[in-house]
Amino acid sequence: MSSPRSRRRGVRPWTLALVVALAWTLVAGAAAAQTTISFWHSMDTAEEAVNELVAAFNASQDAYVVEPRYVGAYAEAQTRLIAAFGSEDEPALFQAEIGFFPRLVGDGAVQDLSPLMETLDPAFVADFLPGLWDYGVLDGRRYGLPWNMSTPVLYYNVDALRRAGIQPPTTWPEFVAAAEALTSRRAQGIVFVGDSWLFEMIVLSLGGRLADAEGNPTLDSPEAIEALTLLDELERSGALAFFGADETTPAILGFVRTRSLMAFASISNWPDVSRFSVAFEMTAGPVPLADGGAIPLGGANLVVMAGASDAERDGAFAFWRFLMEPENLAAWIEASYYLPVRRSVTPLLEDFYAEEPGRGAALSQLEIAIPRPRTPDFDRWRVLIDDALEQALRGRASPAEALAEAQRAALEGR
Description:
With about 425 residues, the protein is of the alpha/beta class.
């Protein structure tokens, strides 16, 4: 007959095996319960901040795991997403540049998130800046979730303007005069990237639009011709260095190497510009304006792709809610320089903006910032605008001819 001690020793292997089996079952069950959310984004400079926010969200709960993936700048990300439509590679969550966003909605490629809006506290919604919150709505339905929003600003070499006795320009006549006065054998007054958004910036600032209220193209409006003529005359005088739409990096390098002394770009380009502007003092100011002028919004919405499951949709929404927490938004803005989309975030950023007032240049323009054209066709028109800028500023056509051809092609493609 075995002793109690020997009987206890004999039980232990079975008990241990049972405990181990139970532990593995629990682990496997937890893993099976977790939903993976694939997230494609275009945040190159701010990729580290994206990864940190994702890691914090994943650690904060055990229902979802977000897997971020940088897929190139907006244009490359757009191409890769289109190639992935309907395939296993298609992400659940995508950062959709706001000019591309209406096309995704028009093509039925993203989910209607309106039912999820009913779960939000009205006070939470009221905290968003109306223009930034409304951007994700088309035809009365919610498809986009705000995250990274921006406006263009005018970067300038403070030292160069000070030596020339020039104040930062606030009107277009002042801007032209400043660009010409700053131009010398060693540097040009302004560098300009032939991107549709920056061209739209000038058109809107002059009081024009690139589409009418019905969504029809107005690419050759008087304001559009005036805008391209302004650029063309500066280029012909030698005061403007022109780079194509895909040449943003060399354009920025020209500015930081003092070959150009002013530049238009998104406020989110600040980290890149300031990192390399070591030989001079750099800051940013608002875009020059005519009376009644406006500024185009930039940035992106987060969208849930049509192929995402209900669990992936819910996880993507939970991740967005996490990103919208004031402390998380503040950390994101300090890393990326995008605009605060919620009012409650601004007090958390007082020191950030006070440290360098130029960081607030985009904030000062929010009252006059408006959405880009909300028609799916605009994504195609952008290519036509980029080409018109190339034709005119490379001397192949007059501004009026280049824009007339863009307008003709835009109408033909409808």
